[in-house]
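User: I'm preparing a small set of examples for a lab meeting where we compare how different chains pack in three dimensions. I only have the primary sequence for this one, and I'd like the structure in token form so I can line it up with the others. Please keep the answer compact; I'll paste it straight into my notes.
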Amino acid sequence: MKSCISLVFCVAAFSTWASTADAEELIITTIEQEPYTMTKGSGGELEGYCIDLISELSKKLDFKYKVHLVKDNRYGAMDSNGTWNGMIGEILRGEADLAVASLTLTSVREQVVEMTTPFMQTGIGFILHKGVASEESTFSLLSPFSTDMWMSLLIAFLLTGLCIFLVGRISPTEWAQPDAEEHSFTLLHSFWYITGALTLQGAGPHPKALSGRVVSAIWWLFSVVLLACYFAKFNSMLHSNNKHVSVKSFEDLANQDVIDYGTVESGSTMLFFKNSNNPVYRRIYQHMERRKSYVSSIEEGFRRAQEGNFAFIGEAASLDLAVARYCKLTRSEQVIANRAYAIAAPMGSPWIKNLRIGILQLSESGELTYLRDKWWASSCVGADEAHTSEALQPHNLRRLFLLLGLGLGVGLLLALLELLSKACKQAKDSKKSCCSVLTSELNLRFGSGGESAEQDTTDKSKA
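Assistant: Understood. Below is the structure token output for the 463-residue chain.
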């Protein structure tokens, strides 16, 4: 008899467990928005921050779930008839047990559904094109060329000065008698000579040999083209800067009329400006109403900001993603109206308490930070600062640099040929090998012999 009773209790317990297990499969509604929820591949599989968040919570709280996208692609707002749409509407109609998305925690929504502890904190900011928001730099005279360009010019300057010095030493036309004459093209004079060319002024003495004149002519051509590019770019940036304004805050945005701005129509951000008593925020709302500068979606706001002359106002978390994806955008430093994203559930839902604890545990363990870093990782690798797209880069003038390098190489080659020709003539006259005479000449011009000859000439002149 006892065994029969025990068997009945076991069957009843198993039935209760099975029905409970079936009840633990939750229907979750979400909305497609990068990077919270995105469709992966052609199979319709979902991925993103919110999908990973659901997965982590299901492991901690031990529940099964099914996720579907909200039918009307809305977050949830009450219409004129008092009916809720979007994800909030699905929760109220019993079509979903939870709404997991970038759902802003508001007092109006809290009145009709229960919301968990926030899983993400954000606020309201704005993004705009870096070129539009650029400020006048203290070093604006350097702005026509990028940092890489200035470094390339410095290297070209040093190489050309060294080349002039070598040509002056090697060419017998420039230095005919190293043992008796003083060398006119010292290293210091070589750099002074090419500096004079940069200012379009001569700094004698000028080269007499063909090799030296080739190097000088190439450097003068390089300098003229370079200066033309610099002043053309500087003039262009000078005129374009008249259209640029410094915009760092919402007050700066409201006080200018060069850059248009807007936000998503009928969204929580628009309602914030509409209901605000702050005079600056009221002016922003009045501007958007007067210009009808609203956008239909966040993606459209990103697109218009990239096109320039438009600032898109939205929630900072979404704006940070845009800045990470699109290198030409920058976000305002000021963030206002701190707000949070939370999970929504029906009133009296038994899952709210456990979900709140689960979110806190994920936050304390650093899992929420990991998910944020994972899905907000920047793909804007190697992007330069604000002026980079406008400033001239070395690759823009690569042919000019190639021409300069070719001219320097030809000049050095000609100087060596001049010295070789002289050495061969001397070798023929003295019946020595050409190589030995050439080696002797090089030692005389670059060795201690040349230096002692210069010193003797200097001493004689002093005497």
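A couple of notes for your slides: The chain is about 50% helix and 10% strand. The first strand starts at residue 25 and ends at 30.

User: Perfect, thanks.
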